[in-house]
User: What shape does this take?
Amino acid sequence: MELNNVILAIEDRLSDAVATKILNHFGIEIIQKTGYRGNSYLQQKAQNFNKGAREECGIFMLTDLDSPKDCPPGLIQSWIRGPLNPSFLIRVAVMEVESWVMADRNSFSSFLSIPIHRIPSPTDNILNPKEFLVSLARRSQKKRVRQALVPVPGTNRSVGQQYNEYLSDFIQNHWDPQRAATVSPSLKRTIDRLTQEKVTNE
Assistant: This one.
C-alpha cells in the first residue's frame, strides 16, 4: 500500500491533534476528517471504513482502548468482524490518547510545570489516563495550567473548559511522537507500522 494520503477518523479534538501530528511527521496528507462523535460512532462505522478504504486513499482511524479487559487486536476484530483491509489502519491507544500525550515525559512535565517522576513509565499502564492527567494538572505550579485543565469545583465536568484546546496546543508545538513512543508501547506499534509503510514503498 502506498500511504501518501488518508481520510482521518477520530473520536474527538484531542485524538485529531495527536493523529494529525503523527501523520504529518511521516509526510502523510490528510484529505478529509470524519468522526468527532466519540468511540461508539467509530465502532458503528468501522466495517464501512474497512470496506471503503482504497490503496490510493487509505483510512487512518484512532480510537481508545478504554477498558483493561480488552486488548487492541480483540477490539479491532470485534469492530471489523472479518479480514482487515490493509488500506484501513485502525490504531488503538492504550488506555486513552492521553497516555500517548503524557508519554513525551520531558516535554509534558515541563509544559505542566511538574516533576517528571510524577509521570509513570510506561504510560500505557495508567488505568484512567484522563483522570490522571487532570490530577497532575492540579499539582501544577502554573495557574494557567490549572485553570485550563482542571474542572471548576461544583460542576459535573471531568476536565477543565479549555482541556482540548490547551492540550492540542501542546501537541502541535511541543509533543514529539518518536520520543513519546519510547514510553508508550501502543504508540510505538503505531509509529512502527507507519514507518514500515513508508519504508516498504520507498
Observations:
- The chain has ten helices and four strands.
- Residues 77 and 84 are 8 Å apart (CA to CA).
- The beta strands are 5-10, 29-35, 58-64, 88-93.
- The mean pLDDT is 95.
